[in-house]
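Incident log, entry 3
Record: Alpha-hydroxy-acid oxidizing protein (409 residues)
Problem: checksum mismatch between cached and fresh output.
Input:
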Amino acid sequence: MHDMTAKKEAAFVAAGPHPNFAKWHKLFPTTAWLREQAPRNVPRFSFEYGDTGAGNDIGIAHNWAAFDNIKIVPRYGVTNTLPPVDVDLFGTRYAAPVGIAPMGGPALVWPGADLLMAKAAQRVRIPYTLGVAGGATIEEIARVAPDVFWLQLYRFYRNEHAIGLDLVRRAHDAGVKVLTLTLDVPVRTTRSRETYAGLANEFKPNARMIREMLVRPKWLMALLRNGYPRFATIGPYANSTKTNEIIRFARQNMGGAFNWDEVARYRDAWKGPMTVKGILHPHDAEKAVSLGVDGIWISNHGGRQIEALVPSIDALPGIVAAVGKKATILLDSGVRSGQDVLRAVALGADCAFAGKSFLWAVAALGDEGAEQLVDLYIDELRASLGQIGALSLAEAREATILHPGAIKF
Ligand SMILES: Cc1cc2nc3c(=O)[nH]c(=O)nc-3n(C[C@H](O)[C@H](O)[C@H](O)COP(=O)(O)O)c2cc1C
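Fresh output:
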């Protein structure tokens, strides 16, 4: 595991909020407000793609309910200030224990979304994870987010993992800080709203989708500025910039999820900190750690794979008990507020990540959406920490917490 104690660093200097934070905060005080606004600003297919879960979205509902069911007993008479929330992850200092989860195709939700999210993360210094199915190249993200750049990989297994291992090489050259292998997509499943939106297989706007675009002029303008959504990260291997050609190429070369032998192989190839994403069972966490993986990213893919999976936050305590002393613990799926980040940290996570809420933000507020949301998460987290009487993130772990959903493995 990466040594998190050795270095003594200067106090973290947080960036101030974005100049428009106060203005947007009045209009959209929480992510629920951003989600309500999102479909008014983007074509329906865009919203459905980013917002859908598997099946009837019950997995998403379970993720949210699991967070909502966690309650913290506050202590008073200790502090009237906003505590610091900066954190060390794998030897890098970040402004807060909250990051942006990897997403494929965020440009379908808002053209240019990958770069917008990366820039916002860089401004405040929180981790930004580029999805390998993302809409910007590794090198483009390295230019705008050099200090906070994490990369996620799916399994490009053809030709002895030639593409996957070349992505590892490019990641190294580009200064990627952390590599993440996603393990939780062994098979393809159905997301009903994505299927309905016409995006399950390729991006081929039909008459309905074109009508949806035409009534969303701000989105169309963003499309004109940024071009057609593309899968730029893997584009070079497909020898094409055409979205559907890249999708077809990816389907032929990619598939399934990394098995443990492959995790070991990538562990060898990547010299920096590495995490595996999609872990929900302590034994899988232990297996990963035994292979030299530095971070366990607990996730049920935001409820997008199947509905019946346990919520990450309920799996967290068991995984912390199993490997919390040996690995950095990351978590996503259902995070919607600074209070959720506090819940995750108080229960032992080192950092919580958010996916969909960033898509709601860029859909609702366009180019300023991600800027708004990074500030909102940090602002809420600090207020929540102060409210429970914790002077630091570490103290939050000593709070009395009611967590009825915690799984006894
Ligand atoms: C539109 C979309 C695309 C996603 N694509 C990927 C992906 O390519 N790779 C991956 O590991 N996870 C992917 N995820 C899952 C996220 O990384 C993350 O696990 C999830 O969104 C967290 O839950 P939340 O949406 O409730 O915050 C995707 C999520 C969304 C919403």
